[in-house]
Amino acid sequence: MRALVFAVLAALAACSPSAPAPAATPTRNIDYRVTTTASTVDRRFLVEFRSLTDRDLCISADDWPTSDGHLGINRTVADGDAVHRVGGHDTLIAFVRFDQVPPESRQGNDVHSVDFAPEPAFCGNGLTQ
Fold this sequence. Notes:
By secondary structure, this protein is of the alpha+beta class. The protein has a single domain (about 25-120), classed as Immunoglobulin-like, CATH 2.60.40. About 10% of the residues lie in helices and about 25% in strands. It contains 1 helix and 6 strands, in the order αββββββ. It has one helix at about 1-15, and strands at about 30-40, 45-50, 55-60, 85, 90-95, 120. A 3-stranded antiparallel β-sheet has the order 1-2-5, with no helix packed on it. It is globular.
């Protein structure tokens, strides 16, 4: 009898669907998209971070521009350390001043394009607001 119960349980376990484990970190162009649009008149880039997933994404303050268009190491303590939370399928918008773009992304004094690459995490994976 015990062998029959074990065999039935094993057969049921083999038939049950197993969902793939969710990704540990978001993937660009699968879970989110980042676009930058240059405005030479304003000398800045408009940056749009769009979630493509149902899960909330969190972006460290160091990976996102301040309200004044400063990036990473150029941030001051007064800018705060808030994590930016982007709900599923929502968009986060900011701007980056041209003078904040790293020198290797410039051509002389001109900045025509930049690949802005924040590193989001699924909220709850160490980053929460």
